[in-house]
Design goal:
mainly alpha, 2 domains, three-stranded antiparallel β-sheet
């Protein structure tokens, strides 16, 4: 119920909220306040009609989200609804239209609302023009939600950009190291490299020969 009428819900009063009279002149009062769903409202209206002996049935509209009151009494009168105790319930339920053919077709009390920043700005603008306090509150809350969502998205985008920059820096470092390695290989002075290789090879062979002589010594060599 609280989601109806763009979040305004159904505003009830203490005591009877509205009276329904069928075409035979049989009336019954409807007292709302403890209902949580539209189906609960329909059950309350139908129970009150049955208790009063009125031939009125409340049901869902076949299209949209309105409530339909159907008069099956077949009397000479007119199906009517009247608000009581300054209650806004009848209007909030969309049941203020005139009957046609024994039927009061309620307006859509839960229309599909456009979502997003611009939709909430339009809602706030229209509510300010119409001095609609509930609409102003709903529009402001919608804009706050939009701002929170934008802040979250900016944070996520910033984190992704930072990660991409970090990866780019690592790639740059790897490219620099690779270029340095390629340069050292491509720019090698082969004559100098061969000379150094031969020098190292000679030193290695001398080291291996020295190690071989030391490893072949026995205890007798030291005792002698």
């Amino acid at each position: 119920m609280s989601d109806l009428n763009d979040g305004k819900g159904v505003r009830t009063a203490t005591g009877v909220d509205f009276t329904v009279t069928d075409s035979n002149g049989v009336s019954f009062d409807v007292d709302l306040g403890s209902e949580h769903t539209v189906q609960d409202v329909l059950d309350t209206i139908n129970a009150a009609a049955t208790a009063a002996g009125a031939n009125v049935t409340a049901s869902f509209a076949t299209t949209g989200n309105g409530i339909v009151l159907t008069d099956s009494a077949g009397g000479a009168g007119t199906l009517t609804t009247v608000a009581k105790n300054f209650s806004n319930a009848l209007a909030d339920l969309g049941l203020t239209s005139q009957q046609a053919g024994g039927v009061i077709s309620g307006s859509d009390i839960d229309p599909v609302q456009a979502q997003g920043l611009f939709a909430n700005m339009i809602k706030l603008r229209d509510s300010l023009k119409n001095n609609d306090q509930f609409g102003v509150t709903a529009g402001s809350e919608g804009l706050q939600s939009d701002l929170d969502r934008v802040t979250v998205i900016r944070g996520e985008a910033g984190a992704k950009v930072q990660e991409l920059e970090s990866r780019q820096n690592r790639l740059d470092d790897q490219n620099l190291a690779t270029k340095s390695l390629l340069s050292s290989l491509e720019d090698t002075d082969f004559t100098d490299a061969i000379t150094r290789f031969q020098t190292l090879q000679t030193a290695l062979q001398a080291s291996l020969q020295s190690s071989s002589r030391i490893l072949n010594l026995s205890l007798l060599d030291f005792l002698g």
